What we know:
By secondary structure, the protein is an alpha/beta fold. Helices cover 25% and strands 20% of the residues. A hairpin with a 2-residue loop joins strand 15 (508-511) and strand 16. The two termini are 50 Å apart.
Amino acid sequence: GHSNVPGATIFPHNIGLGAAHDPALIQRIGEVTAIEVAASGIDWTFAPTLAVPQDLRWGRSYEGYAADPALVASYAKAMTIGLQGPLVAGKPLAADRVAATAKHYLADGGTDGGKDQGDALISERELVAKHAQGYPPAIDAGALTVMASFSSWNGAKNHGNQSLLTDVLKGRMGFEGLVVGDWNGHGQIPGCTVTDCPKTFTAGLDLAMAPNSWKGLYEATVREAKDGTLPMARIDDAVARILRVKAKLGLLGAHPVDRGNPAVVGSAAHLAVAREAAAKSLVLLKNNGGVLPLKPGAKVLITGPGADNMAMQAGGWTITWQGTDTTAADFPKGHTIGRAIAAAVKDAGGSAALSADGSFTDKPDAAVVVFGEEPYAEFEGDRKNAVFTDEEGLNLLRKFKAAGVRTVAVFLSGRPLWMNREINAADAFVAAWLPGSEGAGVADVLYGKRPATGRLSFSWPAGCDGKPVNGPEGALFNLGYGLSLGERSTIGKLDETCAYLNAGPAADWFVDGKLAPGTMITGDGAPLPGLRGQAGGIAARGVDRKRQEDAREITFAPGATLSFAHRQSGSGAFRISYFLPDQPQAPVKLTLGKNSVDITRQLALSAGKGWREMIITDACAPGLGQSLAITSSGPLKLQIAAVSRQAMPQGWRAIHVSRVTAARGVIRL
């Protein structure tokens, strides 16, 4: 949907739409999305995503429809036609249609270890068979643009791969539209910077996405055009492709197409499609004893961290990049899952209670526990394993089970995860993915107003070894699995043994723009989720160090404190990767547990000298503790890329401060 706009219609993320197995629905979703995007005067959208995720530790897994290339191919055609309408020679797109973008070319879902912007170490046969199948149908349906992937194929960055961009895409596939880059992706090509990269254009990129580097890139590109580094034939081809797309959008000539009609955004008809899509995306994995559908007249308790949480059900890319700040107020015509279920209970003659902590006085007939992953997007969602370790939902399910209350688990996530404990503790288990703004679609299935038709488009892991599961081997529930409401299928007790549950905290607390599970960040004591936004006298924003927003710039008001804490015990020295543009204007204090150290002098020495490491051992702050806080007495700007804990080599304490500073760029306190 038009996810940056409050009040727009928000559909389930692609992983949920894949579970619907319904290309006709996808085309209708494309039509609604195009109407709402066009209504705000925008001509172009970056969809459909045609990734075929193979390792669900990837933080963008939910942007993929399925692990099945054939399903992705059918959706590629449907979404492209929905967004653009059928192309007609000599005529521009209709005023309520927009340019589609097939992305991310190529094999963004096949990177080693599921690493975002990583390297697909695969054969050409696998590249074609698994990852390229969606592009010909999208191109044949008329997709006007294709976006190059940040990722690499066998070491070659896609933004600079002439074989893939020119020979295959434009040659063999016959693509005649424009090829656009991703956010400063050209700057990742060896030998390039974000402000100078002729290699990307000679490889076949027609339009660079240079959000904050455009001026320098423009100047360098003009210079390289004049000195012959960029051949005129390549420039003519790129310009022709860009003009071809603009002409097809009706943007050339005396009377450009007018695409502005905000009144249609979030219309009742559009919301109805989203409600249908949410219902069709749900996959019923367990229904022991036929607890679903919920019975008319029942007394139902609704609880869990996701019960009244629009951010969790809408996921990343909603209002903001990571989606962490989304609230129900952003979608006043939408419904959180908990409130939608409560309304359905009352409509069925029962009584409903929304309880934040799961407490009750009158024993309910059934409890619905809504829980799952917190919102994330791109690399911030990358995981080292596919194990769900947050226990808030689990504890609620076990509490109700002990009280003899029948339970329904509604799990919100961007991917299947190992969670045998939760499946064991629930009588019914629903994979709800990220259903969007229309929580009423979830309630429709729980009450049997709509059938449970969703079927897995990715395998669900049986074991907790953290390895990817892409077929029957290692799957608890294989591709295509899903129960109907009337279907009797008893799931026995699953093995709950998992080494990851007792492995202790991750060494990383905050790395490359990603907050590790269990890490809490506050500004002057107020939550600062994801180290973004403002809390107290602390303001945080994303900045680019090596890639998009892989660091944060922290602005301190005088006297403000930024704090990191981890909910588990840990060991080793603290390591902070930081950059200080200017010397501090007043004392700066570092607090670890009960220890405080003045670091003003060390920061003054490192100011303006690039990225540095600060390492704090227990020789400086005995005990170290499980929290770290930085307090600045005056205004301060500090960029942070990483906070972690690591055991230091033997003899570290003997290294002299000045030697470490000069030789390794490290300040030892």
